[in-house]
């Protein structure tokens, strides 16, 4: 048994939840598409049921429509599996390096070098080389995926289950204006596409798929450190 087997099992859990999330996102997207229509009026597009009016040249705009509870729960479970995987990584590596049980370890994610130094006690037991490897995974060193993972797993944001501010983004197709300028209500499918996103604009499915890949690659980076 490899020391990181438990970490990889958390990845397996994240993938299982992701498989369950995909049809939920598809159903949510379809529900939104069926509930809204677009109408042209004096150079603007009016979106029914949301009381939104945007200039016809607008590329995309958000609709603040809460995601279903099951969708939020699944996203939260995926993110927690990924965080747990990284926590297992730090713990197992600290125990391996120090040849003893090390308590209260944590996968640190901070925005500046000063805060990383202040949180080194979470990486106690690790060799200097391994601490440096974790430092390279910090947002202030250009590692964007750890920043997104932290934002999505921030306990302060669990009041709404997951960090979603404007989860629905309508992307308009500027090459297909004739139908909507006719003056009739037009289905959103004929003029635009719908994206379900996190509050920073990252598409939910694509963003989570990338996070799963990034965490998996990180485990692989440390896998052969256990000799």
Number of DSSP E strands: 7
Count of alpha and pi helical runs: 7
- Please estimate the helix content: 40-55%
Across the major sheet, the strand order is 3-2-1-6
Dominant shape: elongated
Radius of gyration: 22 Å
The mean pLDDT is 84
Kindly report how far apart the N and C termini lie: 13 Å
Strand content: 5-15%
**Oligomerization status of the protein chains:** single chain
Count of individual domains: 1
Low-confidence stretches: 158-165
Main sheet properties: 4 strands, antiparallel
What is the structural class? alpha+beta
Q: What order do the SSEs take from the amino end to the carboxyl end, as H and E?
A: HEEEEHHHHEHEEH
How would you describe the overall organization of this protein?
- The chain is an alpha+beta fold and 227 residues long.
- The protein has one domain.
- Helices cover 48% and strands 13% of the residues.
- The chain has seven helices and seven strands; from the N terminus they run H-E-E-E-E-H-H-H-H-E-H-E-E-H.
- The strands form two sheets. Strands 3-2-1-6 form a four-stranded antiparallel β-sheet. The chain has a three-stranded antiparallel β-sheet with strand order 4-5-7, covered by helices on one side.
- It is elongated, with a radius of gyration of 22 Å.
- The model is unreliable at 158-165 (pLDDT under 50).
